[in-house]
Each structure stands twice: as C-alpha cells, then as structure tokens.
From TrEMBL:
Region annotated Disordered, chain positions: 75-102
Cross-referenced InterPro entries: Anti-sigma-K/W_factor, Anti_sigma_zinc_sf, RskA_C, RskA_N
Membrane topology, from the record: Single-pass membrane protein
Residue ranges of the TM segments: none
Protein name: Regulator of SigK
Location of the Anti-sigma-K factor RskA N-terminal domain: 5-36
Chain ranges of the Anti-sigma K factor RskA C-terminal domain: 121-252
Domain of life: Bacteria
Any one annotated GO CC term: plasma membrane
Provenance organism: Janibacter melonis
Protein keywords: Cell membrane, Membrane, Transcription, Transcription regulation, Transmembrane, Transmembrane helix
Protein's cellular compartments: Cell membrane; Membrane
An example molecular function term from Gene Ontology annotations: sigma factor antagonist activity
Protein's GO biological process: regulation of translation
Length: 257
C-alpha cells in the first residue's frame, strides 16, 4: 500500500483524491519526507507557471465541454477476429453469436489509477502553456499548499516563534522536526505595491540567507520551501513580485529559531 501512496503526490496537489485516499495519503506523508517535498514543489509550481497566464474562463466554455462529450466516442474500437472479420457482425445462421470484443480492456481499478495520473500530467501541461484552465489549477495548488501547512501546524512536535514586522503586523514561524518543514503565519501585514510581494528567507548557521516562499499580504499560513529543518532563523523582506535570489534590502522581520 505504501508503494502506491508514493504515486499520489500529484493527485494530492491537484485535490484529485477522494476522502479516504486523502486521509491515507496525509497519514503517510507525516512519515515520508520525500512525499512532503514533492507535494511542496507541486504547490509552488502552479502559481509560478500561471502567474502571467491566468484568465477567467469564457462563458461559452461549459457549453463547449458538454457539447464535446456528446460527440466523443466513449468506448475503444471493436477488434476483428483472426480472419479479419468484425467481431460484432453476425448472420441469421449464427446460433451462438460471440459478443464484440473491445481493445485493450484492463481492470477498472488500474484504469482509474492510470487515468488519475494522466489527468495530473494533462493539467500540468495545460498550465505550462497557459489557457483557460490555468485559473482552476492554480486554485487547487494553493489549496494543497494550505492543507500541507495545516499538517505542519498540527504536528505534535510543532514549535512556534514570533517577531514584530517593521511597518506593522507580526509573523510567526511554526516548525515541526518530524515533518521536516516550517510554516510562516502572517498577521496584519500591510499591503504591498502591485509589483511587490513579501519573500521569506531561511538563515543557515553561517548567517547566509536562502530564498524561500514569495507571498502576498494576508493572514493565510505560508508553507516555507527550502531546508527549513536546518534553518537558524527566518527573515522577511519585500521583493519584486517574481521574487529575488538574494535580499534587496534589510529584513523587515527576523524570527530566531
């Protein structure tokens, strides 16, 4: 079962699991650092790729999809017999007609798992080239990131540190050693200019700041990317909306861990 759970990271990131699967995967993820890291990377990817392409779906999109469903063949083509005759043809002399056989019939459980993986890849491809589905994929990515952040905050070994922010507001950092992850919780941060965003930085033992998550002002928990488990502190700056590789100003907040 655990081997199959490793394949659900993409589906979890896109909120494509049912309740039972989600519960089982979240329990697995508490003990699997590789899956936590992969889910975090998926949660990061959606907003970055869709940031310049996200558009509202046109009013005609729903009608177009429903119309396409009625014109799309739902079964694979019929397979003829070894003599080249179509399997569905019978004559009046046939006393024991054989049912038509369909190509590539596989168990429904395998089809469902493979279909889910294809759906994840298709959604990611659509997101990469832009288009009308970008808005929906971005929403599911953000939802997945929020779910992961909640798991970190609910961990039994979660520890919290807090700091004031220059200009107003506070930030808390919640870190869980067992989850190998940390979450930044902003409170009452001032809104940034339209072309600016807040960016978190992870400080290592030498004091070097490593780029982490870029986020807008608000109060939603933010899952921090990077090696949060080994960080000695978390800094906060205001950067261009696309983020920076190095801080462009002094931190407006530093949370010691």
């Amino acid at each position: 079962m655990n081997a199959e759970l490793h394949t659900l990271t993409g589906a979890y990131a896109l909120d494509a699991l049912d309740d039972a699967e989600r519960s089982a995967f979240e329990e697995h993820m508490r003990e699997c650092a590789a899956c936590r890291e992969e889910v975090a990377s998926f949660a990061e990817l959606g907003p970055l790729l869709a940031s310049d392409e996200a558009v509202a779906p046109p009013p005609s999109m729903r009608a177009s999809v429903l119309s396409g469903i009625t014109q799309t063949r739902q079964l694979p083509p019929l397979v003829g017999d070894q003599d080249g005759h179509a399997g569905a043809e019978t004559t009046s002399d046939d006393t024991d007609p054989q049912p038509a056989r369909h190509a590539d019939v596989v168990p429904i459980t395998a089809t469902r798992r493979w279909g889910r993986r294809v759906s994840v890849l298709a959604a990611a491809a659509a997101l990469a080239v832009g288009g009308t589905v970008a808005w929906q994929v971005t929403q599911t990515e953000q939802s997945s990131q929020t779910d992961m952040a909640q798991l970190v905050m609910d961990a039994p070994d979660a520890r919290t540190a807090r700091a004031q922010v220059t200009g107003g507001g506070t930030v808390e950092v919640v870190r869980s050693a067992s989850m190998d992850a940390a979450v930044l919780v902003p409170t009452d941060l001032p809104k940034t200019d339209a072309d600016k965003r807040y960016q978190a930085w992870l400080a290592d033992d030498s004091g070097t700041m490593h780029a982490s998550t870029v986020f807008a002002s608000g109060s939603a928990p933010v899952l921090l990317t990077g090696d949060a488990s080994g960080a000695t502190g978390v800094g906060l700056t205001i950067e261009p909306s696309s983020g920076s590789k190095q801080p462009t100003s002094d931190p407006i907040a530093v949370v010691a861990l």
